[in-house]
Amino acid sequence: MTNNYFDIKGEVLDIALKRTRERITMIESALETARDSSNDDTKSSAGDKYETSREMIQQDINRYQKQLVEANKDLQQLISIESLSNDVIDVVRLGTLVQTNVGLYLIATSIGAVKIGTNNIFVISSASPIGQLLIGKKIGDSFVFNNVNQKVIAIY
Length: 156
Prior knowledge:
The protein contains three helices and six strands; from the N terminus they run ααββββαββ. It is of the alpha+beta class. It folds into two domains: 5-82; 97-155, no CATH class. α1 (5-44) packs antiparallel against α2.
């Protein structure tokens, strides 16, 4: 485990990319299963039960298609963040690792908590409530989230 926050940021991005790719694979598998079910249902059903069953399967297919679009957007966003340089950054924006007096946050896509060594990093979307509070902040700026005062200590 390294104490270099740029290395930590890279490790967290790698984990986020891996999780997002796994999510895409799971959604694609579920979508394929739903399509197979739809085809099987078409061959074996008739009447009102058929229509209800087919509609439910179609709703599943539509839901998986939307999830797949969103997951692919997340993947593209993570790939674009990965290509950003590690230049000194003075304002919180997409792709930054933010250290506050409460914790570490990577502004990317909503992945949740990732543990790197002894560090817990919260991978959050810029559209999330805390992400919206962090975007545009500079070192020394304060904000309140869930009734907890936080201060930006560093930006990587």
